């Protein structure tokens, strides 16, 4: 076997927007269409179709981990499903060598009425394990999941965390040549997550080829040497993880309205003392520039700046409405709204977003989110969302 | 580590009929433990936490026999003929394979849709889903079959070499059931109205299949028409072989001179079951890649 475990060449996958006919009655007209040759081939886009993956090209070698990042709906999970043979590509080729394991919905095969013990054998078999293999690994699986006491209880009485832990333990006990991971580390408590990370590092060191999809950039950065950024089904960047994650976080996200709109948000930058920057300490001064471009005459523009935490909750927002007058633009003119912010945030990752409103109609014209991602670094033992500068009082 | 021929290695480039069959049976072999586990699961959940327990396996054939008795005693009464215990034996012999067919098709038909979350998330050869549904039905029928063998001597059936027809015809029936179940499972995934059509056919199928009666009751032409149903020769052959001790490789002409059995009836059923099995497996396998998109 060659060193290359996963090889993807010019891979395309199309999806259909909207309903697919799903009764015999609907099939007859579509069959007739196909017979008359009016239906598009598998390789072309038909009405309502779109490319979920385009021109995918990469390879992963044994002992290598490739991180995959990108906004929701970019095609990350579709890519994994294609590699896992659940979906077949419309164009292009791929080759996956050796035994493939996937950490996607790790407890999908569980039957609620069967006990944990019975389900280990069932789920193991679904993942392609043989009887002896499961029997040999049984104690290890149970120990790793930490549910020894409940192993003969039907899984319908398990908590969702126990369910996921058991599923993860089974899935990672498998000896794979290729491992596909889709955002599973969000299950279980902190200690379990820690153990999961260690287990995955072991697997990579043991010579598995790993593809790791996650929104947890820190986990990607520590596990994967290389990362691929996917946007709208296309490879937008590929290279050393640190560089790609940085590029993603810099917020080159396209605006909702798009560059062809009469007026749109064209750029959002985050800086400190004149240099672009994304790492801050609590209390640092940051400057956010929001550039707006207009191709037709615009009146009464208001810029909105908002911050969301990693869970996506809005934690702060402000707008130019109360701070200055509105802005009018002539055709071809652009304007930069600049905000100064004091970053009184607790340690962690936050996403900045920008929006453009028209004051008279109170209509939102455009949004960019995430426009930039901020890392707040701090050694202080502070968690949560804001920094309240705690100190110990001795009096 | 294995190379090209291993079912674990996947290359999207190759696709031939022969290659497909190699893939299907290679997958079956590689995933034989999964097939066993899924069958075991279906059996376990059927007998776990159930009032009936293993009685469930006998309930359905028993109901069929009961209904058959009502129908046949009414017929005997109208024809002013004595009601022979051989009639019960004949109906009971056909009730077990009929129940097997109905329940297996029912479970197999729903097997893909029921495992929606597996089909859209995890790769494994999907053929094992309808196949394990049928295998669980085989297990049920074994219990029913054992019960039947205990009862048969009391119904005036002498055990003879004719019993050997049972395993032969059972293989044919299983092949046909797997073929139909696999095909329907994938149709049902694409078209959700298939399950209603199948339900209707299974409900009324008992009138189009010789379970309660013998095809010869409809006269020679009627019997031949009824034998067009691929299940008919299998069910009727079981009765003729076991109850009447007839050698199915030879024709059987009644005293009145009408044709009761022709050896090619068997060949006809086999012509449905065996090529049907291959066609439906290859259809299933070729459409497999669409399952996750349509499910």
- State Rg of chain A: 25 Å
Shape of chain B: globular
Largest two-chain interface:
A-B, 43 and 39 residues
Give the overall form of chain A.
globular
Average residue-wise pLDDT of chain B = 88
Summarize the structure in words:
The complex is a heterodimer of chains A (395) and B (295). Chain A is of the alpha/beta class and 395 residues long. Chain A is built from nine helices and 19 strands. In chain A, the strands form four sheets. Chain A has a six-stranded mixed sheet with strand order 5-6-7-3-8-9, with helices on both faces. In chain A, strands 12, 14, 15, 16, 18 and 19 form a six-stranded mixed sheet that branches. In chain A, strands 11-10-13-17 form a four-stranded antiparallel sheet, with no helix packed on it. With 295 residues, chain B is mainly alpha-helical. Chain B is 69% helix and 2% strand. In chain B, a hairpin with a 5-residue loop joins strand 2 (252-253) and strand 3. In chain B, helix 2 (32-47) crosses helix 6 (128-151) and helix 3 packs across helix 4. Chain B is globular, with a radius of gyration of 21 Å. The chains are: A alpha/beta (395), B mainly alpha (295). The interface between A and B is large, with 43 and 39 residues.
Concise summary:
The complex is a heterodimer of chains A (about 400) and B (about 300). Chain A contains 9 helices and 19 strands.
Topology readout:
The complex is a heterodimer of chains A (395) and B (295).
Chain A: E1 4-16, H1 24-35, E2 49-61, E3 65-69, H2 76-83, E4 91-96, E5 100-103, H3 116-126, H4 131-145, H5 160-173, E6 178-182, H6 190-205, E7 209-213, H7 217-223, E8 226-231, E9 234-240, H8 241-249, E10 263-272, E11 275-276, E12 279-280, E13 285-294, E14 298-309, E15 314-319, H9 320-323, E16 327-329, E17 334-342, E18 348-358, E19 363-376
Parallel strand pairs in A: 3-7, 3-8, 5-6, 6-7, 12-19
Antiparallel strand pairs in A: 1-2, 1-4, 8-9, 10-11, 10-13, 13-17, 14-15, 14-16, 14-18, 18-19
Chain B: E1 10-11, H1 17-30, H2 32-47, H3 55-79, H4 85-114, H5 116-119, H6 128-151, H7 165-190, H8 194-208, H9 219-226, H10 231-242, E2 252-253, E3 259-261, H11 263-287, H12 291-294
